[in-house]
Design brief:
Blueprint lengths: L6 H18 L6 H25 L5 H30 L2 H15 L3 H9 L19 H13 L11
InterPro entries: Acyl_transf_3_dom, Acyltransferase_3
Keywords: Acyltransferase, Membrane, Plasmid, Transferase, Transmembrane, Transmembrane helix
Pfam families: Acyl_transf_3
Length: 162
């Protein structure tokens, strides 16, 4: 096992995956709880990584986002390619038009704006299958706040008694 393997984190991932799968198979109504668990895990691990790198004076925004892109984009591009191939077999003409806009949004990192314009407002206004991605829009600003909070970690100055 790698030295940074976390059994406690792995124990949370299992139920999170199960909740999402049960939701998508329509066996349980609480799939968003699984997504929320993944957000908590992600935030915990990312914050720990950033804090450690800051303490070592080795943190780099470029390296941080480069590693994220290297880890996440290949899977995203595979999903986009496979759904683009499958879409004509499953979607109507109207669905394909919306799908084309959603793919363009995904490729330009404006997918949530596309979904918002298609539905007219955030989730709940009209059923839209890709809304499970809506909450990802909030993840990056959260990380930006975390950078700011972790970047100012010096303890307050204490007056010396003389």
């Amino acid at each position: 096992m790698p030295r940074d393997f976390r059994a406690d984190v792995q124990a949370l991932r299992g139920p999170a995956v199960l909740l999402v799968v049960l939701y998508h198979t329509q066996l349980a109504p609480f799939g968003y709880l699984g997504v929320d668990i993944f957000f908590v895990i992600s935030g915990f691990l990312i914050t720990g990584h950033i804090a450690t790198r800051l303490e070592q004076s080795r943190f780099s925004f470029y390296e941080f986002y480069y590693r994220r892109a290297k880890r996440l984009l290949p899977a995203a591009y595979v999903v986009i390619a496979l759904t683009t191939i499958a879409a004509p077999f499953f979607l109507s003409d109207v669905g394909l038009r919306d799908f084309r806009s959603q793919i363009l949004g995904a490729l330009t990192f404006t997918g949530n704006i596309v979904l918002w314009t298609q539905a007219g407002s955030p989730p709940g206004a009209r059923p839209c299958p890709p809304y499970s991605h809506w909450t990802f829009w909030f993840a990056e600003p959260d990380r930006g706040c975390r950078f700011g909070l972790l970047g100012n970690r010096d303890p307050p100055a204490v007056a010396q008694q003389g």
